[in-house]
Design a protein that fits this description.
Elements (H helix, E strand, L loop, with lengths): L1 E10 L4 E10 L2 E7 L9 E10 L1 E6 L1 E2 L2 E2 L6 H13 L2 E9 L3 H16 L8 E4 L21 H10 L4 E6 L6 H9 L3 E4 L6 H10 L3 E2 L15 H8 L4 E5 L7 H11 L3 E4 L14 E3 L2 E4 L2 E5 L3 H11 L4 H8 L1 H6 L17 E4 L6 E3 L1
Parallel strand pairs: 1-4, 5-8, 8-9, 9-10, 10-11, 11-12, 12-13, 13-14
Antiparallel strand pairs: 1-2, 2-3, 4-18, 6-7, 15-16, 16-17, 18-19
Helix pairs in contact: 1-2, 3-4, 5-6, 8-9
């Protein structure tokens, strides 16, 4: 059965169409056309001010008071999915920060269980640490951080085969053998929580790694005499990087500057946590951000709010902010041929928004 959604504006990921209709058939995009050309036999299910591709969040730790590392279960993933959908996100990577191998394996078990029971919207697990630089650990627990051994890495990769989608690590503490091993499992490696010098980072980006985690946060600083990892990310045309657009993790002026330098290589994540008093990572809501033991530990963002902040605080055009939340993370995950756009043959992954970007419905 074919159905239609209409909007004052439909942003396809490339073009913006005024007074248009989106036709869906068998959960795929069948067509996008002017509203006046919509066949009379196709009912309009819903009208919105704006229709755009659904969002993708590759770094979120929990939702609804269920931190995934503390409650690694299919039920927690369902709660995270509901939370993400309410913020316009269709696909998300549940993320576990620096922890024990046991906790990572429980997260892998939860994802496999979720998939086996028909769960959708989770391409895999994002493991952030423990192979990071202690000097740039941020809120990560120092006692878990260490230089990886080959047998340890192989054990985790074998256990998580197919379930681990991304690993954030500090390239300066991981050997080329370790990095090659991780890549051999088809896992995306992202440079983060790193104290790499500019030269070290540029050398790494030339050979091994083309993604970086939360620009400016938990990395060597941008300095006029020691440009560090941020400069290497911004100057290397092959590197994409996430950013947390809440105004706390990164000042909005720096987001605007990074966007002007990086263009379509910069994409959004929420880096969102949830209230938690259990486990090694207590998170307490402080205004509209989270703190852990006095350290900024995560955001209270939704992807819709991140998009809105980019438009209103960073002077980024709406269409480009939407791409930062959909098309660009789809590229990172290797999903850009099936989602991240509203195009014939693509999955019917889209959001309905009002004019003020305050309300969003994820389809």
């Amino acid at each position: 059965m074919r159905q239609a959604y209409s909007a004052d504006k439909i942003f396809t990921g490339q073009n913006c169409l005024v007074n248009a209709a989106l036709i869906i058939e068998n959960n795929l995009v069948a067509d996008v056309l002017p509203l006046n050309d919509l066949p009379a036999d196709i009912p309009i299910t819903q009208h919105a001010a704006i229709i755009a591709p659904a969002f993708i969040d590759i770094q979120i730790y929990g939702a609804s008071s269920k931190l995934f590392s503390v409650y690694p279960s299919a039920d927690t993933l369902l709660k995270m999915k509901t939370h993400c959908n309410n913020g316009g996100t269709k696909y998300f990577l549940p993320t576990i920060a620096t922890n024990s191998a046991e906790v990572f394996k429980k997260g892998i078990d939860a994802i496999n269980d979720y998939w086996e029971n028909g769960g959708t919207g989770v391409p895999g697990l994002h493991i952030e640490g423990p192979w990071i630089n202690k000097e740039k650990r941020g809120a990560h627990i120092e006692s878990f951080i260490h230089v990886p051994e080959i047998d340890e890495v192989k054990d985790l990769l074998e256990y998580g085969k197919g379930a681990i989608k991304m690993i954030t690590l500090a390239p300066e503490i991981c050997s080329a053998e370790i990095i090659d091993l991780i890549k051999s499992y088809g896992i995306i490696i992202s440079a983060g929580h790193s104290n790499a010098t500019f030269a070290e980072a540029m050398n790494t980006f030339k050979k091994d790694i083309h993604i970086a985690t939360h620009l400016f946060n938990a990395m060597s600083p941008l300095h006029h005499r020691k440009p560090g990892l941020p400069a290497a990310i911004m100057l290397n045309s092959s590197v994409m990087c996430s950013i947390v657009a809440d105004g706390y993790h990164v000042d909005f002026a720096m987001i605007s500057l990074a966007k002007k330098l990086m263009g379509e290589r910069l994409f959004l994540i929420t880096d969102a946590v949830t209230e938690s008093k259990e486990g090694p990572y207590p998170h307490e809501l402080s205004g509209d951000k989270y703190m852990s033991n006095g350290i900024l530990s995560g955001s209270a963002l939704t992807m819709m709010k991140a998009v809105k902040n980019c438009v209103e605080k960073c002077d980024i055009p709406l269409e480009e902010a939407l791409r930062m939340a959909s098309l660009y993370p789809a590229r990172v995950l290797g999903l850009e041929k099936e989602t991240g756009k509203i195009e014939k043959g693509y999955k019917a992954d889209f959001v309905l928004m009002n004019e003020t970007l305050e309300e969003v419905i994820c389809i």
